[in-house]
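cron nightly-structures :: item 1 of 1
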Amino acid sequence: MALKQHKDDRVRFDQQVDNSRSYVLPFIEATHKLGGGVNVLEIGCGEGGVLLPFAEKGCYCVGVDLNPKRIDLANDMLKDEVQQKKMEFLLKNVYDEDFLARFKDFFDVIVLKDTIEHIPDQEKFVPYLKNFLRPGGQIFFGFPPWYMPFGGHQQICEGKLVSKLPYYHILPKGLYKAILKMAGESEGVITDLMEVWDTQISIERFERIIKHSNLKVLKKQHFLINPIYKYKFGLQPRKQWGPVTYLYGLRNFLTTCVYYTVG
């Protein structure tokens, strides 16, 4: 069934903060210095918890999301930082002309944490992000490969069986959708899951997109146990065994999360 963080905004926010402080920020800091004068953008920022550790380091942070409720929550939970002009949260699409006009060549770091798998037309989207980068800027991607046990995000389902059943999200779309309907899942949940089904971002396709976007992988880490599972399931994060990371295709089924910085 749906986990506590799917229903409790504060729990979800606190998990975002801790995960970012413990794993995301150190990963980015290995290839890019963070501190005063560094501008950070998070796309799909949700409640804004991922950005708080960056603001604590002195970075100026901007979060964008298409969900008005999430933006309202971010502005409420981080109201002190917003009032101090350390952060701002915008209900915007990065394709909007006014957003591009304001932030062209502005950011040193762009963060997409559990976001790229929700974005359509990724072959267009990834190279477009370069418009917002300063020279030497970097983009962080963290996402679950499509073919991993829960790569369809089916853990958000309300039904106990369909939320815990691995791999069935890779069935043909019509059959997958029919199973969700038979299980009594809401139209909202089904729409969200179909969105992820349509993108199907594998490790191989992601790396091809990066290459075709004239970006280079600066650092990568594959995880057997996703760091976020520490909060969801009480499992300690574990890096993927080195040889598995070279098993093209198969590695997607055995890797629950990947981190990349590109530039």
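cron nightly-structures :: done
DSSP finds twelve helices and eight strands in the chain.
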